[in-house]
Write a structure and sequence with these properties.
Length: 204
């Protein structure tokens, strides 16, 4: 039986890079979207430029691990009721350098999280709002926040801090590991947890 690559959710990754990782070229060619968030960050490979002070006033990721200290492996899996497994959290440098977590098991994808300053939030907000293919929905988080095409949330956390968190999932076969609703709910739960930790670290 021919396998099929189905896109469940798109957060902050380029679709082509994930499809290229598939060994079945025919499967990649027939990819069908279940729920797609057309992440505009694909057009901005690099995150918005941040001032040195805005990356974190007196704060840094633990042991130079970027923003990976904002969430734990247990929190990642709990957000999706254990239906997604996650590999090593990868981040380098101080706060604001981001954190990438590759999905494990038979699922392809990543979760990408990045702290920043207010300017980074405004850059994303203006970029997204200017694209007709992007849906933005207000979310009750921080000073101002939006859900972007379901599977990414951007937040102005106040005090010149911001956060962006997005999920992308691909799988081979007939059954999605999570539904579109579960994916969106998990992303929001993780954003709330990371935001609380980011805010707490600011006062330390």
């Amino acid at each position: 039986m021919k396998s099929t690559t189905i896109m469940v959710a798109v957060g902050a990754l380029a679709v082509a890079s994930v499809l290229a990782a598939c060994s079945d070229e025919k499967a990649a060619a027939t990819a069908s979207p279940v729920a797609q968030a057309s992440e505009p960050a694909q057009r901005q490979a690099a995150a918005p430029t941040q001032s040195r002070s805005a990356a974190g006033k007196g704060e840094s990721g633990k042991a130079g691990q970027g923003d990976c200290d904002l969430l734990s492996a247990a929190e990642l899996e709990a957000a999706f009721d254990g239906r997604l497994s996650f590999g090593r959290m990868s981040g380098r440098g101080p706060r604001g350098r981001g954190c990438t977590v590759v999905l494990g098991g038979d699922v392809e994808g990543q979760l990408i999280m990045q702290a920043g300053n207010r300017a980074a939030f405004e850059t994303r907000k203006q970029s997204y709002s200017g694209q007709s293919s992007v849906r933005m929905e207000p979310v009750d988080l921080g000073v101002e926040a939006y859900r972007v095409n379901d599977y990414q949330i951007i937040v102005d956390a106040g005090d010149d801090r911001s956060l962006s968190l997005g999920l992308q999932v691909f799988f081979l076969g007939d059954s999605a590991p999570i539904t579109a609703g579960e994916g969106a709910a998990g992303v929001e739960a993780l954003t709330r947890q990371a935001l609380a930790r980011l805010t707490a670290s600011a006062s330390e």
